[in-house]
């Protein structure tokens, strides 16, 4: 498997979203965004959307793989190799950011129960605590639909646990996005996902905003939320799949 991730052409953004990005850049000309998990399916879309918007003067990605990008605002991209097992060695990585987009995650089936918890809980929470101490104002998390700390399903339970623990931290604004099935061209299509990919088109006829959402739409929703004026950002906001679709359409 290649150690380099190549980002595709940045997405086209609406006139309204460009105006929103321009207003944000004018109000915060030195704003910095940090992306955790930038090489995953949602993470890479977040990076592409951030760079396409030009809203942030610096887009820092904490990555294990090098990202290849030659699109607009490429000079804003800063890549830093990170070892999540030794975050104390990377404390400076978490300093000086206005917003953090957390797209860390794996699956229990792929990683096993222990490593899944380490990535989806420990890596997320350890990073969030460092960001809180460093004064980051906005934390945006890509979680999952049906997350619930009391769920009988381990995946949903851990996702819900993380959401609850994040709410105890003192960010100015915490935005939690709970997408359902993620639609994208996956590098690794697991058996269950392949099966679902055949069902999704039919199910979307019955439930167009409930059953699935594209990774690009999730990214646009996350970036849009980060660009709202501070006065318009709730202390805690949780976006369902249908709300992600509506919010993403604004970008």
From TrEMBL:
Superkingdom of origin: Eukaryota
Primary localization: mitochondrion
Membrane topology listed for this record: Peripheral membrane protein
GO cellular component terms listed in the entry, alphabetical order: mitochondrial outer membrane
Locations listed in the record: Mitochondrion outer membrane
Domain (NAD(P)-binding): residue spans on this chain: 37-172
Name of this protein: NAD(P)-binding domain-containing protein
């Amino acid at each position: 498997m290649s150690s380099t991730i190549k980002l595709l052409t940045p997405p086209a953004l609406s006139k309204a979203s460009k105006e929103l990005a321009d207003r944000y850049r004018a109000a915060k000309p030195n704003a910095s965004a940090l992306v955790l998990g930038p090489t995953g399916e949602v993470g890479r879309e977040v990076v592409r959307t951030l760079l396409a918007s030009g809203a942030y003067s610096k887009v820092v990605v904490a990555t294990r793989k090098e990202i290849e990008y030659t699109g607009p605002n490429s000079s804003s991209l800063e890549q830093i190799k990170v070892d999540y097992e030794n975050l104390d060695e990377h404390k400076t990585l978490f300093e000086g950011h206005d917003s953090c987009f957390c797209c860390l995650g794996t699956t229990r089936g792929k990683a096993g129960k222990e490593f899944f918890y380490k990535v989806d809980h420990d890596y997320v929470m350890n990073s969030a605590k460092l960001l809180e101490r460093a004064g980051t104002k906005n934390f945006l998390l890509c979680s999952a639909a049906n997350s619930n700390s009391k769920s009988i399903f381990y995946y949903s339970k851990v996702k819900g646990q993380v959401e609850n623990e994040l709410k105890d931290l003192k960010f100015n604004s915490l935005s939690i996005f709970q997408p359902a099935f993620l639609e994208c061209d996956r590098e690794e299509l697991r058996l269950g996902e392949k099966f679902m990919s055949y069902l999704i088109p039919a199910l979307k006829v019955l439930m167009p905003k409930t059953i699935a959402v594209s990774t690009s739409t999730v990214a646009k929703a996350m970036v849009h939320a980060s660009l709202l004026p501070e006065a318009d950002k709730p202390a805690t906001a949780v976006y369902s799949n249908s709300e992600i679709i509506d919010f993403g359409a604004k970008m």
